[in-house]
Each structure stands twice: as structure tokens, then as C-alpha cells.
Amino acid sequence: MSTGDGTVLGTTKLVDNGPPARRWNVVVMGDGYRAAQMGGYAADTQRVVNVLLSTPPYDGLRAAINVYRVDVTSTDSGADDPVECGGSGAAPRTYFDATFCGAPGVQRLLVVDDTTALAVADAQVPEWDVILVIVNSPVYGGSGGATAVFSLAPDAEEIALHELGHTAFGLADEYEYYLGCGVDSDRDVHPPDEPAEPNVTVNTNRTTLKWRQLVAAATPLPTSRNADCTQCDPQPSPQPPGTVGLYEGAHYYHCRAYRPEFDCRMRALGFPYCAVCKRRIREVLTPFLPPVPPVAATAWAPRRVDLFIRGADRAGYHKWFDGTGWGPSLGGAWERQGGILLGPPEAVSWGQGRLDVFAVGTNRALYHKSFEGTWAPSLSGWERLGGTVLGQPEAVSWEPGRLDVLVVGDDRALYHRWFSNGSWAPHDSFERLGGVATSQPHAVAWEPRRLDVFVLGGDRALYHKWFDGAGWRPAGAFERLGGELSGEPAVVSWAPDRLDLFAVGPDRALLHKFWDGGAWQPSASGWSSLGGAVVGSPAAVSWAADRLDVFHVSGDQAVYHKWWDGAAWRPSASGWQRLGGTAVGAVSAVAWEPRRLDLFHVGGDLAVYHKWFDGSAWRPSLGGAWQRLGGSADF
Known about the structure:
The protein is mainly β.
């Protein structure tokens, strides 16, 4: 009945994808578990977590998610089950005071004392984002208010996913009743006001519909009509599964409220989330994905690679391969470069023996250091370039003595600063390029005085702007390249006037499009699928004309590879080569000469790991071990 009826024992981190300040933190707690039942509670929690992380779209966003289990005992098992709702009358003493019949006449509405649940989460995991409470009862029930609550009824995991949709993402119930079909007498017609939730609407206008971007031109709107508003619509779907449109009956009403697809997890258990719900989940979780690979890798000559990370103390760290071995050592020390960095650094080289490193400080200004025989301004010092940066910088060089740095500002517009003729321009500010970026900038230079920049927009499509030597094009705007993408895109060029883009699509497959010198292929807004099941963001590199190598991390945390050999994608159009590893965050790739590839990722122990292709085989092995380079990367 209160906190006197149990004990908080402690917390275990079940899924660790990085520091809680940078990830979306799920806290799971139990109610109605006696001390002797804590083993069962741990098993129940693990089962729910396994289902959560294997369910689309969470499976493609798992790198953004941490999960914590808080162990709480109760004096008694179960939950209150009032007789006035047809319950058993049970009134066990539990820590969070779980009870069915959270609203008059609605036995399935299972609630807990939110104030107590929030207080426990605050004390155990201060940076929590959502709370799930498992109630140890076989009676069907759940709710999605300040906490997501669900019982151990059959399909408990499905109940959890449904209630999580409410609590974490503000999704509405898409079913067309309140007490039940044939029971309600006041649910005929939805009020005319537009619901705030993203997955229900009263609007039938194709041009202003909330999810208009997902509706095919040939799909009729409304897509289904209820012929009798006094009851739930009994007709089957008039469209194939997965067709987005306007299906009448939603938000607890029979008519004049519409849902995006005929079936969805927010309407009935056992169905996938609809496309609109998936889009909303991605919108919330994508900012928690590691924004860039945690390892910045660059090569300024054959048999030379330089790596940069942010360490556990938030300083920058450096390790290099000089053709004979790793410095300062192989698996141990890294060179400490000072600073207090907000995220991973970015590195670029304009020529042999030259390195430029950029990072964002805790004041969100951009900082820079360079190496040309010695580090400037010093080994541990950094030059302040100013700005107010959201996320991480992107740096490119099109010729010796030239640097271009692109960042996203506080207003989500794209900003630019460049180094030329020995000084930075603009002198003490950034050039504003506009746009509304929801990703980091990604840029490539395929010849001197040419720069191409890409960002994801607010509609998750990819947008493009380029500098042609005379000015930025298109003037005052961006070119829209289509897609509904997540994570960070990758761009590479293997020849002048050639661009290849890679990004993650809504089904977690890797998508590809390219500029062939005259037009975008397969079309201005179209993309081709390369298959795969991508977690996070891809990496792409080219070591020769008409050669591409692409890498990604999948749900098993292994790194996967496919390549274009000038004639076809290998190992097949949709297949991938498994390179093993246990990667936390995205992989980094660099090529220092033809037929040489070096890959880097951060492992579960936060050390950096390395695998390379030497022209004949992957080393140390194809699908097995990686070389451990040590370090403690914080991202």
C-alpha cells in the first residue's frame, strides 16, 4: 500500500551503450514481487528488454538506448483488483501500490503511484528518460501515463510496447472504443478538435494531413469509412497491409477520427507499429544515437594513420601508426591532447605531415589544433574558433593550405568557416548557409574549389548544397534528395563530378544514391536498397576509381562490409560480409592506398579495436578477432 511495504535493493545496468547523459535511458522497476521472487523479476525484465530491442524500429536504434533494472521488493505479490470493476477484491501490500480499475469501470487500466515511481527513478538513475513498471499479476492490464505500466498477462511484452508508445512518444490509442465495442453508447462521433498526438487526426485534407509525406498519391482519402457510427466498423481493410492512409475509427471514437494504417500496435496487440508511429519513435531516439563514429581516423600518406578520441576525462587523445608500429604503444597508452571536449573530435589532413583536429568544447564553441612537426598552439592547448555548435563538426580540405569546417548552429541552420591564405574567414564569426538540419553535416571535396555538403532535414529527407568556386548553390536554398532516413548519412567521391551517398532507410536497410556527373541516380528523390540491418550510421570509403567499400554495425554489434568492384555489389546485391567485433557506436574506415582498408570501432570495454585488409585478406582474421589498441573512449 506504500513504500513501507517493500524495499529498494539497488540497480543493475542491463544494456550499456554509453554514458547516460548521451543516451535514452530506460528504467525498469517491478511491483508486487516478494523478495523470494526477485529471480523471476530479473527474468521477466530480461525477456521484455530482449523483445524491445528486437522490435522495429528500436532494433535499428539500439545504439541510442541504455536499460537499467531497479530491484524493488514488495511485502505481497500481485496488485489491487477492486470488485467494483469485476475484480477479485485482492488488496496486496506493494511498494508502488499497483491497482487495476484506474478509471471507473475500466478494469484493464492498471496504474501505480507515479510519485513514488518517479522518486525511485530519480534516486537510482537520475538521467532516466522513461520508466517501465512490471506488475506481478497475470490479470490483463496496463497504462501509459507518467510511467508505462503493464502486467504479466499473456502478451505482456506486447502490452509493454503499447504502453511505451504512450509514455515515451506521446502516441494515441488508435482503437475506436473506450469500454469496448458494443458497450460504449457515447463514442459515435469524435469532437471536431484536432488531437495533439501524431498518429490520430480528424483532418482529411491531403495537403495538410500530419502524415501526408507517407501517403501514396493513389491511396484514397479517407481510405476506409464506417457506415454505421453507432458501432465499431466491422469491415476488413480495403488496402494491403502497411498502406498508409486515413482509416476511420480511432482515438476511442467510431467515426470522424482517423488512424494511419488499418492495424497498428497502438490499435491492437500483435501488430507492428504503423509507419507514423515508427517515424515518431525515430524522431525521439535519433538524437541519442552516437552522432559520429567515436574514433576519428585520417591518413596523410601510405602506411600512416592517425586516430583521435575523447577520453574518459573528456580530453582529446591521439594514437598513430607510422608504418612500423603504433605510437605511443600498441595496446596501451594514447597521447593526451588536453581540452574539455563535448564529443568526439574530427580530423583532416591537407598534405603529408599535416593534421588538423577540431572539437566542440563544453561551452559549445568550436576548437582547433594542428600538427606540422609539432602541435600548435601546444600539445595540450586548443585554438578557439567560436560559434555555438549543436553536435559535432565536419572538416574537409580541397588543397594544401585550405580547410573548410561546417557545423550546425543553435537554430539548426548550417554554418561554415574556412582557413585560407594563413587565416580564418570570416575573421571572427561563421557564414550562415541556412537550412534546418536534424543530422550532423557531411561534406566531400572532389576537386579544388568544389565542396558538397549534405544534411538530413526536418522531414528526414536528405538535403544538398554545394560550393562551385563562385558561390553556394542553390542560392538561398538546398536541393532535396528524398528519402525517409535515420542516423547519419555517409558521402564519398571516387572521381571528379562523382558522388556516392549512403543512408539508413525506415526498414534499417542501407540505401544508396549517386551523382554520375549529369544526374542523380536512381532519380532525384529515389534511393536503391543494398539490404542489411543497420544500427546507427554507415561508413564509406574509396581506394580507387569505381571502387567503393561500405561498412555498418548490425544488431549483433558485429561490423558488416559490402563493396562495389566496378561491375556489381559484392558479396551480392543485398548480402553483406560479416567482419565480427563487438562495436559500441559506428565504425570508422580509412584507405591509405589501393587495396588497403583500415577499420576502427570502440568495443564494450570502451577500448579502440582495429581490423585491416592488406590486399589479400582481412587481418587478424575475417570474422573473428580484432586488434586491441587500448584507450578509454567516451562518447
